[in-house]
Design a protein that fits this description.
The chain is about 10% helix and about 45% strand. The protein is mainly beta and about 170 residues long. A 6-stranded mixed β-sheet has the order 1-4-7-8-6-5. Strands 9-2-3-12-11-10 form a 6-stranded mixed β-sheet. Strand 2 and strand 3 form a beta hairpin. It starts with 5 loop residues before the first strand and ends in a 12-residue tail after the last helix.
């Protein structure tokens, strides 16, 4: 995806109904790992933008962007997962999501594809040590012979101790 390319979520789903997006996930890459979350949260996908830093915020929040007059905070998913940072390139994207009526941008290395993952293809997340980035994992999706790491977008965006955050599904 080129920097100037903008992909609106309606282009992904076409004129399909909301039911057609059920069980649909957007997959994206961070290094060699592929992650996914439900497409229903996505507003649009844009190329990397000029990010204005904001002082005294959490390290994974890279700053804000102004997208057509709307200000969005931008989260670096690599930093959120405590992964090494890499330079942005022409594949780096910002996925703009709407969660709890808040618009937030997520910086990822590359958007892969939209896929269907049925509930019976999803296994619970593996049990690992507390404090690792596995706390953001909602499940493991089996698609053909590959595994997609399905993220809990609420836990990804909000600290676990925030009492006012709840999932809607």
């Amino acid at each position: 995806m080129q920097t100037e390319d903008i992909l609106d979520i309606e282009e992904i789903g076409g004129e399909e109904s909301e039911n057609a997006m059920l069980d649909s996930y957007l997959t994206f890459n961070l290094g060699v790992e592929q992650y996914a979350f439900e497409i229903k949260y996505i507003t649009e996908i844009i190329g990397i933008q000029n990010i204005t830093p904001v002082p005294n915020i959490k390290p994974h929040i890279k700053g804000i962007i102004n997208l057509r007059g709307i200000i969005y905070p931008v989260v670096c998913v690599r930093t959120r997962f405590n992964l090494n940072t890499v330079p942005y390139n022409d594949r780096t994207c910002i996925i703009v999501v709407n969660v709890n009526e808040n618009g937030i941008g997520l910086i990822v290395d590359e958007v892969a594809e939209v896929i269907k993952i049925l509930p019976e293809q999803i296994s619970p997340p593996p049990q690992t040590s507390k404090g690792s980035h596995s706390r953001f994992i909602k499940g493991m999706g089996r698609v053909d012979d590959k595994v997609k790491i399905i993220l809990n977008i609420y836990k990804l965006l909000y600290d676990d101790h925030e009492a006012n955050v709840s999932e809607d599904d």
